[in-house]
Each structure stands twice: as C-alpha cells, then as structure tokens.
Design goal:
Layout lengths: L3 H29 L1 H12 E6 L6 E2 L5 E13 L7 H12 L3 H8 L6 E8 H4 L8 E11 L6 H4 L2 E2 L4 E2 L2 H5 L1 H4 L4 E7 L5 E10 L6 E4 L3 H18 L3 E7 L6 E8 L3 E2 L2 H4 L9 H10 L8 E2 L5 E4 L7 E4 L8 E2 H6 L3 H8 L4 H10 L29 H7 L8 H13 L2 E3 L4 E5 L5 E4 L4 E4 L3 H14 L17 E11 L2 E15 L6 E8 L12 H14 L7 H7 L44 H10 L3 E6 L3 E6 L11 E7 L4
Parallel strand pairs: 2-10, 25-27
Antiparallel strand pairs: 1-8, 2-3, 3-4, 3-5, 6-7, 8-9, 10-19, 11-12, 11-24, 12-13, 14-17, 15-16, 18-21, 19-20, 22-23, 23-24, 26-27
Length: 656
C-alpha cells in the first residue's frame, strides 16, 4: 500500500498536469484560434444587410424623366416580436388596405413570419416604420414613363440580376447601377434581427444620371404619327429618324413592326434606299470634277437598254419621261434612273465606292454597341460586275443602309460637308451633380467641300419643287428640301414583285438647316407606294405638329432671324389636296389679342391620345407620374391659358 505522501504527490501531479492542459487549451483558444472564434461569434450575433443603391435616372435632352428608380418595399412581420397583435394588425391593415382580422389569424397561426411581397411605396409603409415586429425590406423598382415610349433606345432592365439587358440600360449599366451600401444588424438569442444605427458600414452611392439627345415631345409626335400612318397605309413597318446635322445628336428615332410593335430597326435593319441615294452619286461626280453645270446626257425617252459584257441585257426605265437633254440637277430633280446611270459612268468604280464609304455606308456609326447595329451593305469594287454594279449603285440599288446611316449622310449635305458621329447621349452627371461627360460634336471626316454641299442643296430644292417628286413634303413659310425614294424589296437574293420601300430624306429649313429627317415606310398596301405620296407627306405632318406645339428641338429664334421665305402653294394631287398649315412667324411673341386656347379634358384617355389632343390645341406637355392612362391636367381642363403654355399631364392606371 502506497504511502500517504506518495498518494498526495501523485494527486498533486495529476492536478498540475490538468492545470497545464487547461492552460494549453486556453492558450490555443485565445491565442491560436481566438480570431476564428471571435469571427464566428460575430456572425452569430450580427448579419450584414445590403442597402440597394438608387439606379440613375434617364432624362431626355430638356430634363424630362424617361426612366426612374423608385424605392419600394417588401414587408415581413415577426409574430414573436409583436407586442399587441390587434393593434399591429389594425396598423398594417390600414397601411396596406387589408383586413385586420385576416392578419390577426396569420399572426396567431404559429408561423415564424408573415410576409407581404407588395411591393409597397414609401408613403404606404411610412406609418409602419416604428411598429414593433414589422420589418421593411427596401428594393429599387425601375419605372418607365409612357409605356413603350422610346423602348428600344431606353432598353430593358432585369430586376432579378439588377442589370440592363439592352439599349441605354445595358450600354451604360456600369454608370447607372451605383454602388450598394452595407449595414450590420444585431440578432438576439432567438435569431430575431434588430437594427443598430451605430453599425452602418457604408452608405449606398446612387448611380449616374444620363441625359439623352432625344427630345421627348418630338419623339412622341414621331411615334404616334408613324403608328397612325402604318394603319392608314396598311404598311408592314416603318422608321423615322430626326437628327441635328451640326452635332450628330439624334432628336427622335421611332421604328415599328407589324402590330405597332416597337423595334430597333432604324439602327439594325438595312434597306435598299432607291432614289434617296442618287444624291451621293451626284456628290461623287461633283467632288471628282466629272460634271460641269452645262453637261447633259440623253434621257432615251424614258427607256434605256444596257448590253453589259458577259451578262444578259436589261432595260432601265424612268417612271416619268423627262425633257431632254438632262443636266445632273435635272436628273436629281425628276429622279431619273437613266440620267444618273449615264452620269455615273464618268466615275471609276473606286471613286464611287470611296464617296459612298466616306458618307458612312458599309461601316458602323458607333451610336449603339456593334452587336445591336448593322453596318449595312457596300460591296468592294473588286466584287462589282462590269457596268451593272456601277449603274445599280447610282440609283440606290445594290447598297443597303439603315435609317440612321441615311440621316447621318444627309447631315453631311446640310452642314456643309462634314460627317459627324451620331449619338444618343448628351451628358452624364455624377450623384453630386458634377458633369462627368458632355457630348461635343465628333467630326469623323470631311466628305465634300462646302461649295459641293451648297450645290447639292440646290438640287434638293428642285426635287421638292413643283416639278420634283417630293412636293407633298413641302411646308409653308420655311422651306424644306429633300429627296424621295421608292425601291423594290429584295428578299432571298431576288426582288419581290409588288413590294416596295417608300422613303423621304429631307433637310429643314433649307437656309440654316436645323434638322435632317428620314421617313421610311415598308410595303404600303393602301394608296400609293411612292415615297413622294407616302413618306413625304408624313414628314410634313410631323414637322407641322412639332412647330404648332413650339417644340424645344426646333430653335425658333434661329428661324425668326433668317427671315420668312414664302413658297407658292403646291398644286393639288389628283386624288386629294395636301393639308397645309400656315404658321405665323416669328413664334417668339404671342399676340395678346389672339384667342387663348382652352385646356381640353383628356381624363381617361391613353397617354398617346391625351398628348395628341393637347398638342393639337397648341400646348406643350410635361408628363407626371406613371401609368398608361391620363388622370388629370394642371392647369385643369376648361381653363384658358396662353398659347404654347406647358400643361402637366398626370398619369395613372387605366380605369377598370
């Protein structure tokens, strides 16, 4: 039997060994694994809450909001944190428009949480912010004013991935999205979360605001006019482009497919322009010095047989037999296929190709990402067929371009010879108001000398005169110049019988141009299919409505300073006379003795219809709120206001 001293020593040794083990374990926990356990404990008692950043607003050129982000909320109620079920149910019921009795039953059901997806607006949830047990989850909703207004350009925002999928929303996503913030919430022993204001990690940083070059009023007028024209003409589709020739800024772009479906065809769907491209052949001839003012060619009485080497003979015909001989100016004026083909033979293939390339055809404009834009079709000279391709290109066949490319090319003629890169973005502002980007006119190249551009504008004057094909596009008081086009539709490598593309490219006004307009109608079935009888009158109607509404995109002070040019009234066409609106100039001052317009009652109408009625009354329109139906106006309906006044149109959901 061991001695007591031995047993005591053994016990002391075991105690000492135990103490060492405890100290070693404590050292391990505190010194070696301390940070890990501290982090684990922090995770158990705290949670990180992501605070969404406001996505930047997209405005039109004058500051009209087109796409905005609005903070809305999901709501969850934690029954264990509710002190008084009846009082909480009444408060939530009043705020959300629900039955308190239903909420009481849900709170007493034993479920860990009562959830309402909503989403609910800030004004709806304001009374619930201090109610115990009610938790608000903020989200950002993207709201677009005016339904599908400018939809292809503005693009689509995906709320699930919180990224833009197309248009401006996609192209400028990194600037629009902003930077989310973070806050730390504390959790009790039961896992219930409560906010801790002192534990804010970072505030959210809103996204940048983007101002487009688009003018909302002109865009609205163009979209509505195109919709109505497609119905009246029973046409398949159409495009309208308005562009500032001095800056390359796109002021309005509208494209519609069958069923009034918005599309991006003005950027992505090239077409053979027909006679609107004859002006570029004339530009090449003048640039290369191949034609003098007195040079003429024979018109062949409207039919000319061509016998190309190693190819089947074919005949070129003119719709209207022109007086002979033809000068280049006269060939453009009467849109003579024969005259342009004969003059084009004075150019070498590489000379005509270079001119067309310099005008921007066959290459991307860069106005939208290359994947969403077509560069069109311009064959290389090495691939040209002898005589055939040169003759085809001279009258707008064998080449394909988008409506935006055609507008940019006509802007060269309008501004004196310089090609500018078209753009949709005017400026970008940081959340603190700093302008981080401002569009400056971006010249690509000088295409033609100033004197050649002036000569081409004189040719266009004749093309919309009494002897030209575009006379129905003419408006009074300030002269419009332009060129019509009527081209057969190519599909599957051949031309389709009975299908045509009607177009009109114009410059307005002729002196000191402010706008280039391209209007294209695809396969009109009702009435005529000629560009001069379809696209040209539509251009006139849009400009007249824009002028009547005193649109900001039209610089009336510049018009007033140039002096009015009175044009003779155009003769009536065989079927019906054109509708001509004569406007007093300058429009800067309003005659105090003139009748004051009365604000019409547009309540219950669609947004498009309401805006149309207000514009026809000579009033400007500013949209307020969201929804697809007009609710009221300010000033109210029936009130007399000064002509050209701005009326605020409040929008809401359509009445059931």
């Amino acid at each position: 039997m061991a001695k007591p001293t031995v047993r005591t020593g053994f016990i002391q040794f075991c105690l000492a060994l135990g103490m060492l083990a405890i100290l070693a374990r404590a050292a391990q926990l505190q010194l070696v694994q301390g940070d890990e356990f501290a982090e684990r404990a922090a995770r158990q008692r705290t949670s990180t809450v992501v605070m969404p950043a406001r996505r930047g607003t997209i405005y039109d050129r004058s500051g009209e909001p087109l796409v905005v982000s609005q903070e809305q909320y999901h709501i969850s109620i934690a029954p264990e944190q509710v002190r008084d079920r009846s009082a909480t149910a009444r408060a939530v019921g009043r705020a959300l428009g629900e039955s308190p009795a239903v909420l009481v039953r849900e709170l007493a059901s034993g479920r860990p949480s009562v959830y309402r997806h909503g989403p609910f607006t800030a004004s709806q949830v304001q009374p619930l912010r201090d109610v115990a047990g009610v938790h608000l989850e903020p989200i950002q909703r993207r709201l677009r004013y005016g339904g599908d207004f400018a939809a292809p350009m503005l693009g689509v925002f995906d709320p699930e991935s919180e990224t833009g999928k197309s248009g401006i929303e996609s192209a400028l996503d990194s600037l629009l999205r902003g930077t989310p913030g973070e806050a730390v919430a504390l959790r009790d022993i039961r896992g219930q979360r409560f906010e801790s204001p002192s534990r804010l990690v970072s505030n959210p940083v809103p996204g940048h605001d983007v101002y487009l070059t688009i003018d909302a009023r002109l865009q609205e007028i163009a979209e509505r006019a195109l919709d109505e024209a497609l119905v009246q003409m029973d046409a398949q589709s159409g495009d309208i482009v308005f562009l500032d020739p001095d800056t390359g800024e796109l002021l309005a772009v509208a494209s519609r497919q069958e069923g009034e479906r918005p599309s991006s065809a003005a950027f992505s769907a090239p077409f053979e322009p027909g006679s609107t491209a004859k002006l570029f052949t004339a530009a090449a001839l003048l640039r290369e010095g191949r034609v003098g003012g007195a040079d003429t060619v024979a018109g062949e009485n409207g039919k000319w047989r061509i016998d190309p080497p190693l190819a089947v003979p074919y005949t070129i015909a003119d719709e209207h037999v022109a007086k002979e001989p033809l000068t280049l100016a006269h060939a453009v004026e009467v849109s003579s296929n024969i005259g342009m083909a004969k003059f084009a033979r004075r150019l070498a293939p590489h000379e005509l190709y270079a001119a067309l390339r310099d005008f921007g055809f066959g290459t991307y404009t860069g106005v939208v990402p290359a994947g969403a834009e077509s560069r069109g079709i311009l064959p290389m000279p090495a691939a040209w067929e002898a005589e055939i391709t040169l003759e085809s290109l001279s009258r707008g066949y064998g080449i394909a371009m988008t409506a935006v490319q055609l507008a940019s090319a006509y802007a060269v003629i309008a501004n004196g010879g310089t090609l500018y890169a078209p753009t949709l973005v005017k400026r970008i502002e940081a959340p603190d108001g700093r302008v981080v980007y401002r569009h400056d006119p971006e010249p690509v190249r000088r295409v033609i000398p100033v004197e050649v551009a002036q000569t081409l504008r004189r040719y266009l004057r004749g093309a919309v005169g009494a002897a030209g094909t575009g006379e129905l596009g003419q408006i009074q008081n300030y002269e419009l110049i332009g060129k019509t086009g009527t081209a057969r539709v190519a599909r599957g490598g051949s031309y389709v019988s009975g299908e045509y593309t009607a177009s009109f490219a114009s410059i307005w006004p002729a002196d000191d141009p402010q706008l280039v307009a391209v209007v294209k109608i695809d396969n009109p079935s009702e009435g005529s299919y000629f560009g001069g009888l379809t696209a040209a009158p539509l251009t006139r109607e849009i400009l007249e409505e824009a002028l009547a509404s005193r649109n900001d995109a039209l610089q009336l002070n510049r018009l007033a300073s140039t002096g009015a040019v009175r044009l003779p009234d155009p003769p009536a066409p065989p079927l019906a006379p054109p509708v001509v609106v004569s406007l007093p100039w300058p429009q800067g001052a309003i005659d105090s003795a003139a009748p004051r317009p009365t604000v019409p009652d547009v309540g219950g109408r669609t947004v498009r219809a309401a805006v149309a009625v207000l514009h026809e009354s000579g009033l400007r329109v500013q949209l307020r709120g969201s929804g697809g139906s007009a609710v009221r106006t300010s000033p109210e309906a029936g009130r007399q206001v000064a002509g050209g006044s701005t009326v605020e149109l409040y929008l809401g959901a359509p009445a059931n």
